[in-house]
Specification:
alpha/beta, Inosine-uridine Nucleoside N-ribohydrolase, Chain A
């Protein structure tokens, strides 16, 4: 287990360029595509080493395996639109079955091996914006990586919210419990009540992104087309909250996010948090600067 001083150092937004991997259910909804695109466009700060496809199951997939495979294909499409290259790995075909059994996948194996090349003084930043089975599996396969990574996860809701019944967490509670109990330095980005402030609209997308380049045009059009199916004829705004997880890595001046230390909570199977002040501290984001984040995102993606 990391000493407190070292943990607090790792939980401070890094200065200088860092290595990261991004775990994403990219086909689930449009916010993942924005987050991937954002990470690809921050060359001066982020060296994106690998992208992992995460499982998901909703109306856009027939099950976790189908969701993961569709996400894998969507990642490749985004890389092509962006004119970028990156290692891409298929993730788990199921959610974690229990808190002791990893699910084998190329993504989990890559993270378990890749993270061993890092140290507490130079950690690998693991940004996760989907169900967290791939990360939990890597931690179960290679527990020593807990001291070599910083995990930035967008999942669950705010601690003031009445439940944690959020898509990423509710489908993968066992994995969340493994990650939160692993001892790995953790940055929590809650959905409802915090990053839910990160919304955009059709006029904004058309003004800042449409026609700027193939990637920007794709993001704008996909978002507008989606809204025209569920909100046709009505006022709408679209949450693109996954970008907050990437923005945390740029927050060395506190310009994008406000955060505090709390004892790492315990995700419960009844979709609530448990609390124990004896658990190690984690970073908890409690506010986002919507205009600063969206403005930086649009500037980078449209260039």
């Amino acid at each position: 287990m990391l000493a407190l001083e070292q943990r607090l150092k790792m939980l401070t937004c890094p200065e200088g360029r860092v290595d990261m991997v991004l775990d994403t259910d990219a086909y689930n909804e449009i916010d993942d595509q924005f987050a991937i695109s954002y990470a690809l466009r921050i060359k001066e700060k982020l060296d994106l080493k690998a992208l992992y496809a995460a499982p998901f199951h909703n109306s856009r997939s027939t099950g976790p395996r189908d969701g993961m495979l569709k996400s894998y294909d969507e990642i490749l499409k985004l890389l092509d639109l962006a004119g970028e290259a990156c290692d891409v790995f298929k993730g788990s075909e199921t959610y974690l079955p229990d808190e002791n059994t990893p699910t084998d996948s190329p993504a989990a194996r890559d993270l378990a091996a890749r993270a061993m090349a890092y140290t507490a003084d130079r950690p690998l930043y693991v940004v996760a914006i989907g169900a967290i089975t791939n990360i939990a599996s890597a931690l179960l396969m290679a527990p020593d990586i807990a001291d070599r990574i910083v995990l930035v996860w967008l999942g669950g809701h705010s601690i003031e919210w009445p439940d944690t019944n959020e898509f990423n967490m509710m489908q993968d509670v066992a994995a969340a419990r493994v990650v939160y109990g692993s001892g790995a330095p953790l940055v929590m980005l809650p959905c409802m009540g915090v990053v839910s402030a990160l919304t955009t609209t059709g006029p904004e997308l058309n003004h800042w992104l449409s026609g700027k380049n193939p990637l920007a045009d794709y993001l704008a059009q996909q978002t507008i087309d989606e809204a025209n199916t569920y909100a046709k004829g009505r006022v709408w705004s679209r949450v693109i909250w996954d970008v907050a997880a990437v923005a945390w890595l740029l927050n060395d001046q506190g310009q994008f996010l406000s955060e505090k230390l709390i004892s790492t909570p315990i995700p419960q199977y009844d979709h609530h948090y448990g609390f124990d002040h004896r658990r190690p501290p984690c970073k908890y984001v409690y506010h986002v600067n919507r205009d600063a984040i969206i403005g930086d995102l649009f500037k980078r993606v449209s260039s």
